[in-house]
Amino acid sequence: MSLPSGHTTGHTDQVVQRRARCWDIYQRRFSSRSEPVNPGMHSSSHQQQDGDAAMHGAHMDSPVRYTPYAISPYNRKGSFRKQDQTHVNMEREQKPPERRMEGNMPDGTLGSWFKITVPFGIKYNEKWLLNLIQNECSVPFVPVEFHYENMHASFFVENASIAYALKNVSGKIWDEDNEKISIFVNPAGIPHFVHRELKSEKVEQIKLAMNQQCDVSQEALDIQRLPFYPDMVNRDTKMASNPRKCMAASLDVHEENIPTVTSAGEMDKWKGIELGEKCADRSPVCTTFLDTSSNINSILELFPKVLCLDGQQSPRATLCGTEAHKRLPTCKGSFFGSEMLKNLVLQFLQQYYLIYDSGDRQGLLSAYHDEACFSLSIPFNPEDSAPSRFCKFFKDSRNIKILKDPYLRGELLKHTKLDIVDSLSVLPKTQHDLSSFLVDMWYQTEWMLCFSVNGVFKEVEGQSQGSVLAFTRTFIATPGSSSSLCIVNDELFVRDTSHQGTQSALFTLVPTAFSSSVPAFSQEQQKMLPS
Amino acid sequence: MRKYRSHWSQGDREGYQRRSNYYEGPHTSHSSPADRTREEVVTPTLPGHAATRSQMATSLDFKTYVDQACRAAEEFVNIYYETMDKRRRALTRLYLDKATLIWNGNAVSGLDALNNFFDTLPSSEFQVNMLDCQPVHEQATQSQTTVLVVTSGTVKFDGNKQHFFNQNFLLTAQSTPNNTVWKIASDCFRFQDWSSS
């Protein structure tokens, strides 16, 4: 869909002119700010030297200032096409010689590379994953340099609209465990395999520029919060009259979320415009970019700070500084090694806690191995001065961090099933909330199953009746008779919930181990369920 | 069971006194032979270990295993969290090659994946408030000496708020004539407030 030669609609022309004026004004207003150099940008006729401070250490032979819309001085009259041509000529003259070696585009400019990342894609086979994506993707794509990186799978594509199409596949494909697969898209700067063609000095400059563009904060910018760019295109009159104010407003929005945003970050926003400049080179990207404002939006959506789907975090561009790529993996619910073992464990827990809460724990004798071990512990908190709600567990607590007496250490570890059940029988009477259970099955062999249960329970009698406590209980079990489990090790950790907010968290709707297989609860149990 | 109690309360208290030197000073690897690194959890091999390993039933052996478990657990926890906080890149030396980690429901398996994982994790500051341990019954381990270690405390990952955490380990022993090296066979880590993080 290319523009007919020598002809543009009057409206498009005006839009382009106004747009360019705004950005021109912006450029002048912010010209005194230090701006790093991104060698991927084209030089412009405004060869203003900002001085070394602007370069943040990057040194270029001919300092190039990134101007968002370099054609601006030229578009006041004439058609867009004419501007293209003018711009192209100008750019070629001023490009430093090394530039022509960069990238893969015939005229020596860099292609627009995008890095496509599948979070936790390390679990997927490359072929399988790429096929899956291609089946859902509206355009064919050629993945370049597919690789696994940390927990993710990544590859590159060399086209913004392809990148956009891939981004649209996110959340529309599922893996064999029926989990949604997300796709994140980042502009790739200059991918490493292109690097090889560059001088190493250039690589350093690029890295410096990229470092400045990466924010250290873990916060992700809501896609909703990028108001500015569509407005810039659509509401031209407003923008024209007060672009600085709009810009400032936009910056405020960003700065809230990303404290380290600098003028480099601002420059980032205009990277989309750089693609517009590429249009001058008649690459396929440009025509779509300039034709409709929606394409501007879609391309602008591809930038790191705009990338995050609400509530999620995106992986970071590879060229960021060393700590910037570190982040905590998303916390997930219960983990089971297999469906069969999951059912076995859940069944076991249902039966165990039915007896445990029944008032008579002697029934648990059959659950334990003759030589099983059990111990119980509560956390040692130096700040705890007041007696807490779970101090009745204190006398049995075997916290060897603070308990140094070897005799007591021995005493408090209960050995043999008779001893164990006797000890359990004197612990407070409880009502466990199965719907709060989170289970991690973390080790299994033919002879052993190791799993930990996290949840809450209520005390149903005594002084603390009604108080809710949280627990983590670790079981090690061997296969018992008739597909049951036989406990050989049992460790119970009990903690208070009041100052940790766990109580509310666990009683709200979170995915739990029992959500799909909850049996009919007794009335008492039902009272404990989230309303 | 009464038999055990009498052992605990009478005869073996002296036994404990004799062995109390185990608890006096930390057994660290600082004065270790050249082939040992700081990131190893090492305890003296139990006397007659090989011969008595299969006899869990006698009280003496059980107590021995409990002692050994406690010593290994204490030593281990000190080294593990210090390495995690200050020498993160060395952390996987404490894991067996095929070790697995379930971290807030995310499964990580094998040394390569573990290396990547710990590399991605932001820098940490751990504070352990609770430690408990048990020797794992040989029926579950097929006589491979194993200790269950359970810890709890707080952790602050760089760029994130502080969390309470629970962590469980299975430590397995690799014994040589001179000492026993303990490594992690499996590791399970959870924030206590994971659902709101």
UniProtKB/TrEMBL annotation, chain A:
Q: Where is the composition biased (Polar residues)?
A: 41-50
Show the ranges annotated as biased composition (Basic and acidic residues). 83-102
Under the heading InterPro entries, the entry gives: LRR_dom_sf, NTF2-like_dom_sf, NTF2_dom, Nuclear_transport_factor_2_euk, Nucleotide-bd_a/b_plait_sf, NXF1/2/3/5-like_LRR, NXF_fam, RBD_domain_sf
Q: Which residues form the signal peptide?
A: none
NTF2 domain: from which residue to which, for each copy? 344-494
One GO cellular component term:
cytoplasm
- Ribonucleoprotein in keyword set: no
Q: Which UniProt keywords apply?
A: Cytoplasm, mRNA transport, Nucleus, RNA-binding, Transport
Which terms does the record give in the GO molecular function aspect?
Answer: RNA binding
Name of the protein: NXF3 isoform 1
TrEMBL record, chain B:
Q: Which GO terms describe its biological process?
A: nucleocytoplasmic transport; protein transport
| Pfam families hit by this protein | NTF2
The UniProt entry lists the main location of this chain as nucleus
Q: Which PROSITE patterns match?
A: NTF2_DOMAIN
Top-rank taxon, per record: Eukaryota
List the record's Gene Ontology CC terms alphabetically.
nuclear RNA export factor complex; perinuclear region of cytoplasm
Q: Which SUPFAM superfamilies match?
A: NTF2-like
Provide the residue span(s) of the region labelled Disordered: 1-40
Domain (NTF2) spans: 72-191
Q: Where in the cell is it found?
A: Nucleus
Keywords associated with the record: Nucleus, Protein transport, Transport
InterPro entries tied to this protein: NTF2, NTF2-like_dom_sf, NTF2_dom, Nuclear_transport_factor_2_euk
Q: Which PANTHER family match?
A: NUCLEAR TRANSPORT FACTOR 2
The protein depicted here goes by the name: NXT2 isoform 1
Originating organism: Pan troglodytes (Chimpanzee)
